[in-house]
Amino acid sequence: MADFWRDSGYHLLGRTAAGHLQVTDDFLRAYVQRPEVRPVEESCAAERELHAALLVDPRLPVPESRLATLADPDARETYGIVLGFRDRLIEAGTVEDCYLRTFLQPSGGASAPIPPLFIDQMAHVILRAILDECEDALRVRAAELLFREQKVTIADGAVMAADAETVDMFASSGGFGTLGQLVVEAQTPLRTVELDVLDENNADLYWTRDQRHDTVLNLNFAGSGLDALCRVLELWIRHFLDVQVSIQPVQQISDERWVWHIGLDAEGSQMLNDLYEGAEVDEGRLARLLALFRLDFADPSVMQSDIAGRPVYLAMAVDTQNILRLKPQNLLVNLPLAARS
After folding, report:
1. d(Cα 333, Cα 178) in Å, to the nearest integer?
2. I want to staple 21 with a disulfide (CB 3.0 to 4.6 A). Which of 95, 233, 269, 309 is the partner?
3. Bridge partners (DSSP) listed for residue 105
4. SS3 track for 206-265
């Protein structure tokens, strides 16, 4: 069985009896070792001392008065953000609880908001745990949509999702770093780079390139890529909420008793809201709708009693720049679940 996403921090975490990711000193220490936090040549003595102390004890309380002794205002701000996130992780105890509290209790009593980068990193490592024994490379690639932006291209009826950061890198430098950027700026042609489209026949090539983010997922209706994404979303819900659901793509919503919907991203949310309310949605916006889904609960009794047994409709759409930014937290905080004792 392939190991994958070794940069996620998964191997630094423990596991609770429920299978959630227990925050450890080694995991917290990894944030202290990030390039943004490590001292540089110009760092003052107070900053170096703080960094060394946190490496020894990554749970060390750091009052504002100590942060104020750092000479560099950028260093003070960076430490404030990282330590605020660290404190939330420590308080929550597990990465999953920290992730949920971020959206259920946005302020959380922390000294600084959690940057989107850290939210994506939590989703990254949680999905690594969820997929730990997965042998389906298409599902693992599909899971990247939950924490990495995708650039979507629609051509000849094919809906192709490529990693947005990778696409930008090739667009600016041809994949050859600084030298390539200079060549691009000089308008000298580079060799064409074609990203591999994964399918059921070549999916295993992903395992040797899982951290390169240079494969493309086909999201066509009834295709293996969209099916893989559905299975990942089912596992995501089950891991957090301990409820079993089935998710299937649908071509349209033809339901006179449509009662509940959730957008998988900001664009999808607004589009579903407008369609539900009967507002006009022009063809340009509808063209950005990538997929609709129907979600059904295996046990309707876990739903709100007034809509138990009814389907939940989901939508996924790109913005005007053809960027897909999934918000998997929407599935956790917006499902119509009955109150639990």
Report:
1. 42
2. 95
3. none
4. HHHCCCCCCEEEECCCCCHHHHHHHHHHHHHHHHHHCCCEEEEEECCCCCCCCCCEEECC
Sign of CA pseudo-dihedral 91, 38, 56, 5: positive
With both helix axes pointing from N to C terminus, report the angle between 73-92 and 25-32 in degrees, rounded to the nearest 10.
Answer: 160
End-to-end CA gap in the chain: 39
| Cβ count within 10 A of residue 186 | 7
Q: Average pLDDT of 215-236? A: 97
DSSP H helical ranges for 115-220: 116-130, 137-143, 164-173, 177-185
pTM: 0.91
Paired strand residues for 248: 294
CA angle 272, 217, 249 (to 5 degrees): 35
Residue 149 has which token pair?
């932006």
Is residue 121 packed enough to be buried (19+ CB in 10 Å), middle (13-18) or exposed (0-12)?
buried
Q: CA triplet 320, 249, 132: central angle to 5 degrees?
A: 95
Rg (CA), the chain: 22
d(CA 182, CA 185) in angstroms, rounded, equals 5
What is the C-alpha separation between 290 and 271, in angstroms, rounded?
A: 11
CA distances to 4, 28, 67, 87, 293 from 136, in Å: 12, 30, 46, 36, 21
Overall residue count recorded for the chain in this entry: 341
Number of neighbours of residue 56 by Cβ within 10 angstroms = 10
Amino acid, res. 213? H
Could you read off the pLDDT of 48-68 as tens digits, one per residue? 999 999 999 999 999 999 999
With a cut of 80, say whether residue 184 has pLDDT above it.
no
Give the 3-state secondary structure of residue 124.
helix
